[in-house]
Amino acid sequence: MPFPSWGETEEGRDMLQEAAEQLVQAAKLLNLDPNLANRLRFPKRALIVTVPVRLDDGRVVTYTGYRVHHNITLGPGKGGIRYSPTVSLEETTALAMWMTWKCALMNIPFGGAKGGVCCNPLEMSRRELQALTRRFTSEIVMLIGPEKDIPAPDMYTNEQTMSWIMDTYSMQVGYSVPGVVTGKPLVVGGSVGRREATGRGLVNLIIAAVERLGLVPEKLTAVVQGFGNVGSVAAQELAEKKVKVIGVSDVYGGAHNPGGLPVDDLIRHVEAGGKVSEFPGVIPVSNKDLLEIPCDILAPCATAGQITRENVERVRCRILAEGANGPTTLEADAILQQRGVFIIPDVLGNAGGVTASYFEWVQDTQKFFWDIGEVNRQLQRIMLGAFQEVLSLAHGKGVSHRMAALMIGISRVAQAMRFRGLYP
Fold first, then answer.
1. Are the CB atoms for 197 and 353 separated by under 8 Å?
2. Is 1 a domain residue?
3. Which pLDDT tens digit goes with each residue over 371-419?
4. CATH code (residue 238)
5. Which entry of 78, 102, 114, 244 is annotated as an active-site residue?
6. Are 40 and 410 in contact (CB under 8 A)?
7. Is residue 379, in this structure, part of any structural domain at all?
8. CA angle, 334 as apex, 331 and 340 as ends, to 5°?
């Protein structure tokens, strides 16, 4: 029997290469000490585990899981856990690196981490997913904890997944530890507004960009790729701001209507098990074609590597707002900049999730919970503050928004590393 693969994928290698190249470019602009820049290329630690699960048909299948700490200089690790057939060590490492810069950019006391299990959750029962989650948690339990590493939901994981992780960890230590994860249900220490925070934070920035460009929301159109927690909330928030949402998509395909889509009805349709492409009155389109629909605001909120050298010339938007991680390659980013597209890069655009996770962690730690008004006020304050910092640096240094965001995050981590020194 051959030795099991550790899940290396072409997509994961591309993501890690993209993350590393971003670091190289930002470090050059910062004139960063080569010793520090080289240290930041590598994760602090990476754990690979096998996760055996007894399936409903009696078979025992062994999955591969990962937890990566890229850098925890500024505080405990923070990053999601995803269940997907694409999960690999390279993908997880790239996502952990982006989380490092994101937390530093938002000025919250976390480092970058990420995790996941290579599996197909769409083909697994609830019992199988619970068994997978509890065994994976047991295998990584030495890395996680409210002062060490705080996981959160990501692709194909949710509040229920986080509840199972919290319960498994709590059973190991002998008492309830709500702060070990964020993105939990309210009844076990979750925070109001956490689920909506990534999409809501993205739209806060979109509206700030609209105002900066002197545009009027009621006269704008938007296309949102991805209709999960991030995309559906972003589409809903845009519609509430009177922006006409003319295209959305889920994993099965997209829906287009030049006259505008009824976003609330679409959300109910999807929650009932439907596909957006099957909603009455829409024009079905592929995820690829959806990105090429002319619009004012394009929000890729699905997966990495969506806008590349191959399709960037056919992308037509005025504002590109990245809700996903790594949806635009550096090559495509440069072309969009030349065309004058206003880019809200992922490290800033989707930071609402980790920011609200920070709020949840603070509330769990203090055992004092906020109302939705306080959560939304603090989210908007931090998001818009980072937005202004990025724009100010981009203008002052003549660099792209993406490079400015990376430069702020990387410089804060580097400064903290210099102060803490090299052990021993």
1. yes
2. no
3. 999 999 999 999 999 999 999 999 999 999 999 999 999 999 999 999 9
4. 3.40.50.720
5. 114
6. yes
7. no
8. 145
pLDDT at 107 over 90: yes
Same domain, 33 and 168: yes
Q: Is residue 28 domain-shared with residue 166, that is, in the same domain? A: yes
Which residue spans within 119-206 are E strands per DSSP? 149-153
The answer to whether the CB of 88 falls within 8 A of the CB of 343 is no
* Residue 259 covered by a domain: yes
Q: Do residues 59 and 143 share a domain?
A: yes
**Nearest residue to 254 (alpha-carbon basis) of 227, 214, 218:** 227
Among the listed residues 27, 28, 23, 35, the one whose alpha carbon sits nearest the alpha carbon of residue 70: 23
Asked whether residue 172 falls in the same domain as residue 28, the answer is: yes
Instruction: Give the domain-ending residue among 143, 178, 213.
Output: 178
> Is pLDDT of 168 > 70?
yes
Q: Does residue 421 have a pLDDT over 60?
A: yes
- Structure-token match 């507004």, residue found: 193
Q: Is the pLDDT of residue 285 over 70?
A: yes
Question: How many domains, the chain?
Answer: 2
**Rounded mean pLDDT of the chain?**
96
Please confirm, yes or no, whether 114 is among the known catalytic residues: yes
Pair 201, 172 in one domain? no
